Sequence to fold (80 residues):
Amino acid sequence: MGLLILRRLVATIPVLLLVTAGVFALIHLTPGDPIDAMQLALVSGFARLRHMLLSKRMSLPPPSMSTNLIFLSTASALSN
Fold:
């Protein structure tokens, strides 16, 4: 019984890694910018300036798999 539970726990590790990579890819493959989604439309020069300032203040990282690895390492460090 204990061996079965251990095998199942070990099998969840690749599943969790695949799920996080899949969700990460889906989030970054969708068109648009998170700031655009918050503001709905960037029409005026003021809105463009606000977009630049918000993205700088939020320090949005460039989408890449290294960002996912940083997320996973931070999540594992917080769980310890």
The radius of gyration is 19 Å. The chain has a mean pLDDT of 75. DSSP finds four helices and no strands in the chain.
